[in-house]
Amino acid sequence: MNSSALASEFLLRGTRTLKEATEAYNEGDLYYTLVRLDETLNNLASVILSLYGVYSVDGDSVNALSYLEDTRDLDSSLKSLIKEIQDLDRQLSITNFIDESSLKSPSVVVRNAEVKTTLDRITKIFDKVQEVFDEFHS
Asked: Cβ(94)–Cβ(34) under 8 Å?
């Protein structure tokens, strides 16, 4: 398998899910924003894993980053980026998603400002992962 091509595919998916999260936020749909941000983090983690030839078979790429840290000699900036991704993933996982009824869309128990901060942080992480991708290919 071509690790570079796979990483490129995950970066494309991350671009798409981040764009959809931004659009959902701008439309006031906080639930869908958080769902897409979670997917974005997993796509970004998959970019990093793919670059190093690690493939997550259980679908939890963020947790697989720990394996990468344990088995590879990574520079401090990449370790810092991994920690940031894992911290944000934990933050998203403890956000309360409430499915009020089967006839109504789910909602979240977070404030608009919290979602905006999370969106901004993940956008910055996206830029950093894109830099890692670009450096890997130079």
From this structure: no
Q: Distance (Å, rounded) from C-alpha 7 to C-alpha 10?
A: 5
| Predicted confidence band of residue 134 (pLDDT cuts 50, 70, 90) | very high
**Per-residue pLDDT tens over the stretch 75-96:** 999 999 999 999 999 988 766 5
| Angle (deg, nearest 10), helices 76-93 and 112-136 | 150
Burial class (CB in 10 A: 0-12, 13-18, 19+), 11: buried
For residue 104, list its beta bridge partners.
101
How far is it, in rounded angstroms, from Cα 107 to Cα 117? 18
pLDDT tens readout for residues 36-58 = 999 999 999 999 999 999 988 77
- Chain centroid to CA 122: how far? 7
* Residue 115: burial class (beta carbons within 10 Å; 0-12, 13-18, 19+): buried
What ranges make up the beta strands (E) of the chain? 97-98, 107-108
